Amino acid sequence: MQYLTDFLFRCLPSGLLVFLFIEANLTSKYNKYLQISAGIVVYYVIGLIGQYFNKNYNIASVDILFFFALLICYCIFFHRDSFGFKLFISILTILIMVASDLIFALVIFLLFPNLDFQIEHTTIPAYVAISVEYFLIGIISYVVYLIINKFRFGQSINKKALIFIFFPVSQFLILGVLAKVLMYNPELITAEIIMLVAVCVVVSVISDIFCYRGLIQNSQLHETKMRNEQLEYERNTQYRYYEKSATYSTK
Question: Is residue 220 part of a domain?
């Protein structure tokens, strides 16, 4: 009964959020409903593997790493888009999920420090909190989908932007593992730890913003330099052409 409730109230909504977001942005190679169903099944198995490692070996980050690998493989091997765009969507999906889960977990720990948020905990307050979290993730995913659909969907992904996204993913992946460890070890949770993690999140977001601005400025400078070089080349070409024309006319 416990596995059934975990699947219905945790895995199924979460899996639908993840795989529907991917299918909305990518072109399916096979039947998208079969792909989503297979993805959710594997997603649930990964969750069970994570519980097994946590119970028997006290390792709380295996499911996150497997989930990260699952999304990349799912996007790359089950869709027809360009490799860069598929990689971009997979990384963006894991970033949305990890960042949203991390921030929501911090809020829950601050407001309700005694709430058990573990996967095996099946109380009504835990399910209410999970439902609220999934609702917020759904809103965020829809907003991101609209942005992608307006500016990036159907277009090639800038390689610099693709490389940049690894930076925030690495930050939130580390913070997500930390939140996972704290979630499975509530005795470690203190006000100081929560405030420290919150500060880390804020600093990470600020650093990402400044790094992205620097990337854009550097890209603009590079484009300006290339444009100036092209204009200089055209000017030199025209100069040589007129010079040769003047030489032939004098003869």
Answer: no
Q: Beta strands of 54-201 (E only): which ranges? A: none
Mean pLDDT, rounded, for 24-42: 92
Domain annotation covers residue 231: no
pTM higher than the cut 0.85: no
Q: How far apart are the first and last CA of the chain?
A: 99
Structural domain of residue 117, as residue ranges?
A: 2-189
Identity of the residue numbered 206: I
Residue whose token pair is 């999970």: 130
Residue in the structure block whose two tokens are 């159907």 = 154
Let me know if residue 83 belongs to a domain. Answer: yes
Dist CA 247 CA 244 (whole Å): 5
- Count each helix (H run) and each strand (E run) in the chain, helices first: 8, 0
**Tens-place pLDDT, residues 203-243:** 877 877 777 777 767 766 767 777 887 888 778 777 776 67
Q: For residue 70, is it within any domain?
A: yes
